Fold these 2 entries.
Entry 1:
Amino acid sequence: MKIRLFSLLTALLLICAACPALARSSQKTAIPLGDVYPVNAGDNAWFEVPMALDVYETPGSFPVIGVVDPSAEEQLAANAVFAHIPEGLVLQRGDMDVRGFMEEGRLVLSGTEDTGVSRVIERYTINDLPAVRVEMLGQGYEMIWVGDCGDMYFFMYPTADEAFAQTIRETATTLHLVESRTAPVCNPEDYIWTDDETGVTIAGYTGTATRIAIPPEIGGKPVVALNDAAFYEADVTWVSVPDSVTRIGRYCFSGCTLLQTLRLPAGLKEISEGMLESCMRLYALDIPEGVTSIGEYAIWCNFYLTELHLPASLTDIAGFNFVSCDCLERFTIADGNTAYKLLDNGKVLLTADGKRLVHYCAYQSRGMYIVPAGVEVIPAFAFGRQESLRTVIVPDSATAIEGGAFLSVMYLQSIVIPASVTSLGRTRVILQDGILLPSPENAPVDVTISICVDAVIIAPEGSAAQAHAERFNLIFEAVQAAENTN
């Protein structure tokens, strides 16, 4: 088995090093907590990789991901492997190497300290799942095994480069399973709560578990609500809210920067104001059918959210919801929704009447965007993070462009604004040390429509756009003058 393990490892590493064409298409996106980006390792597993490293998929008998330091002089010295061996994997002819991995993983996870192939260095938990780090004897590699009721996940990496090895150890601690068969902690004693004749309202979480299922009842009464800020900045990674809950308060999960999976109750009617603000690692959000509104700032700074499905019941999305959703690639809408519509394969979201451009998703490749005819309002922060977009042309149906509408268009060169736009820059935010914050007085303040100091506002003489440009010292060019230079 020792020879088989070494042979398979070498083959996997060579494939990783030799197959740049297999590089994953996921956008690398840095987040404030660290210079890392999320890797979707199959349908169920995610982990975070430093921006300096590359990630490759490799063919094999079971799902395999390679993590490579492209700057390393010796590729095999800085080339790790992640893999998932599901319980009940049916081995095919020639899969003896896989059988060796399965036997080794089961031995160390069941408590064996020395298998003859590997020796246990430490036992610990990763997201409340059992984990074991082992030295592969005489081979110059370590493995980290993670178990989930029969399913096994492992990281394998060489130890010749200690800095790279430590990076992979840290990467392994970010492993997150969207669905786990290991039961989450469900302990009523971990909560601060009040009750009345309708049931229990949870006011706070005092437990230490990171994967939790909120109890459906406490003290013989159903849990019906989560209070404002009940889980504010809690160190949880996976949360299931029982279907008995019908109300989740304002900023309930705000600042839960480790939260990656959230299961919402079927009877929820509202995603309340700021409910998921700064949940920077939330990979996906399933909004239950029956939810009718999403409050202001509800998903502000959800960096890792890649796709958002809107239920048929949804009728209102309040402002400031997609600021710093830098990985959001597209929306989908359930059949029967009459409030919203999509353009460009889900990359542009508008109200159903076409009068309000709700959001233009991040990282689109086009250099010029012509806002659809009929749009009247371009709201604050309507455009997600853009590196390619250089020109935006606003239609003459538009009457208002709110402050910060083009905040994330990093290299914007020109905005063509018609005379029909008479309202610019009025929005309820303030700037503090370059950081956008909600205005504490909730009073409208004037904010420039663009932070790109070199961008040119092209509009008619005497228009509101010209006045705005002059007020904020933006470059202005009259329509006629612009036309003469073409």
Note: Helices lie at 2-18, 96-109, 162-172, 464-471, 479-485.
Entry 2:
Amino acid sequence: MRERAKAFGIFGAIAGGGGAVGLILGGFLTEYLNWRWTFFVNIPFAVVAAAGAYFVIREPAGGRNRSPLDIPGVVLSTLGLVTLVYGFTRAETDGWASGTTIGLFVASAVLLAVFVAVESKVKSPLLPLRVLMERNRGGVYASLGLAVIAMFGLFLFLTYYLQIVKGYSPVMTGFAFLPMIAGMITGSTQIGARLMTRVAPRYLMGPGFLVAALGMLLLTQLEIGSSYAGLILPAQLLLWLGMGTAFMPAMSLATHGIEPRDAGVASAMVNTSQQVGGAIGTALLNTIAASATTAYITSHAAGATNEQLLQAQAMVYGYASAIWWAVGILAVSATIALTLINTGRPGTTTVVGSGDGAGAEDEVRIPVVAH
């Protein structure tokens, strides 16, 4: 278990370092070439990653890659999630109560419900429901997905705020996000990875999400003249310190005690919950911010003497309104982590596996680690 914690700590450090390079490189590409290069630059990285995966990674014994592809599951899950995200996007222009928006949400619910029904029947499901139904893993996926909804929306708003309101260049904006990486690396390697062998996961994840919510709460005080050093910097440090602390035990717990045949699914679900949360967060919180901005302009337009100032005030008000929602979402993430996840300190707890082919549950005992 100690080696597992060390491995996840290294993973967090590499992810944080990659994030730092990406932020600065993205700023340089946008400022000196074209924003489209932020997409082109991913191609060589993807080629190298694909080659490395093909030549280095080997399928574990009992893996699922030789099973037939679950085409209905792929189609239903993709359509359901795309429809859900598109519904949030349409709410910005058509309103939450419009027939189009409601219809998209209903269609998404139906598609995802059919997906669940199909997954419970097919021989080789895309997402075996036994992976989700284990209480601790389900809690991890739910809490991480919600936390990322809050996190990705913030990226968008802070980028807009720093460049449009504060007048930062793309390169300056990239450097302004660097404290985020410092907080993430510190939380993951110095707190999460060090304590995950000694403390029950929920006692790292719950407080971690609450610390992140505190950082987000600071950002609800954004104003046109807010100081970077006085407000944005400490908020970023708190936000990412909390996220880093929560992410390490979450990722470890999501893949612990899983059978080899479900190992790929369990780890993929961690990434999927983050990607889906990011897509939903960007669409949902941007819609909330845009609606609040429009409402602010409508209510203050009559007495405004400076239209440019009014636009800036309305944008900042919209960002702050959406960030309040992000605070609430992080609080829900913390609540899920503290209540749904019930496994004890590693080395003293029995983790329930994902079951054999007949659906029975196997128990995987975690060896006690001497401290």
Note: Residues 2-65+130-351 form a domain with the Growth Hormone; Chain: A; fold (CATH 1.20.1250.20).
